[in-house]
Design a protein that fits this description.
There is one protein chain. The protein is mainly β. The chain has 1 helix and 8 strands; from the N terminus they run E-E-E-E-E-H-E-E-E. A hairpin with a 2-residue loop joins strand 7 and strand 8.
């Protein structure tokens, strides 16, 4: 299954002597290799959901140079945390987990 979506990279930048993380978002295309949802009972009204999706992305130079900075990947309108990266040149295989609740480029 084909996938098109945003990938959020966090890079540390300096503004007036203050260091902070800044999210840079880039659009990529790839293949959705594995698609699985897990629901975890949390004792609250809504269960927590995680996905065990794997994406195969034909990486550009920016992604190869910065894959360790990937914080989230957007799938079906939701930002998901990155669990792991497997390098299979020229592709990167991204494994996703829980919902990303951190900063985005829109904040």
């Amino acid at each position: 299954m084909k996938w098109i979506g945003n990938v959020g990279f966090a890079q540390t930048v300096e503004h007036d002597g203050i260091w902070d993380d800044e999210v840079i978002v880039k659009k990529y295309t790839g293949d959705l290799l594995k698609k699985r949802y897990d629901f975890q009972g949390s004792g609250e009204i809504n269960d927590n959901i995680t996905i065990n999706h794997q994406l195969s992305i034909l990486a550009d130079k920016f992604m190869y140079d910065n894959f360790q900075c990937i914080k989230y990947v957007e799938v079906m309108g939701t930002r998901w945390k990155l669990k792991s990266v497997e390098v299979q040149y020229p592709r990167l295989i991204l494994s996703l987990g829980g919902v990303w609740n951190g900063e985005t480029d829109e904040e």
